[in-house]
Amino acid sequence: MKKRLLTAIAAAIGTALTVAGCSGGEDVKNYKVEIVTPFGSMKARLYDDTPLHRDNFMKLVRAGEYDSLLFHRVIRSFMIQGGDPVSRHANRDTEIGNNSIGPDIPAEIVYPAHFHKRGALAAAREPDSVNPERKSSGSQFYIVQGRLQREHELGEYETIHNNKVRSQIYKEIMKFYTDSLQMLQDKGDADALSEMQFRIVEKVEELGHERGLMMTIPEDVKSVYREFGGVPHLDMEYTVFGEVYEGLDIIDSIASLAVIPPRMRPGRDTWMVIREIKE
């Protein structure tokens, strides 16, 4: 009976959490980099309100740490990923994609100012199951290719995200309500039971909004996704710390490469050299 009761309440609230972080900074640098590949060059700007990621990326660029690393994971209509130090001159038998340079970086998720539009430069990371704080890899990054999004899809992303938030908060607060709910169930007090269930749902919504975890995609962000494309389901999940502003076609060239499942490494090694643009 207890299990059925909790299951019924869970169904009314939703399914697992997403956590958003936020960070800002007054230290304006306006850093830009050139990412050279066999297909040509991309130019990207780094955001000043993600200073930990900005400064870490520039430190690695200036030290030449990215030179000759591979885009080791490519998924068409999604993204191209690189930055694993083991990928440098890696033969086909070498497993790449699990390594990084330096420690993880605290999340700097600044949404909706920065989102996963086409050309977004973002930090890779381990999944929530082992990385609930959503810390970023010390060196691995990805660049979004994405695809055009339909209006109904954007609404679905909002719903899925917010249901995840509701579910995690529900799991968090149920330890304070389980005994009381069971007592009311045992007493057969249906009215009081219903009232408490309603209060739980209200509390979940309240905490979700107080913590800034609920997603509402602004209309200007929707417009970008509809007209230029991207991958909105990653928003509020990963740190976006820059964007490609020139050479977007290079992303398409790399994303179109034939890959070898399951790790999605391109059949043709695609190296990178990253240099600071000084203006």
Could you explain the architecture of this structure?
With about 280 residues, the protein is an alpha+beta fold. It is about 35% helix and about 20% strand. It has 7 helices and 10 strands. The strands form 2 sheets. It has an 8-stranded antiparallel beta barrel. Strands 8-9 form a two-stranded antiparallel ribbon. It is elongated.
Quick overview:
With 279 residues, the protein is of the alpha+beta class. The chain has helices at residues 2-13, 51-62, 151-173, 178-187, 190-210, 219-227, 248-255; strands at 32-37, 40-46, 69-75, 79-82, 120-123, 141-144, 240-246, 259-260, 265-266, 271-276. The strands form 2 sheets. Strands 1-2-7-5-6-4-3-10 form an 8-stranded antiparallel β-barrel. The chain has a two-stranded antiparallel ribbon with strand order 8-9.
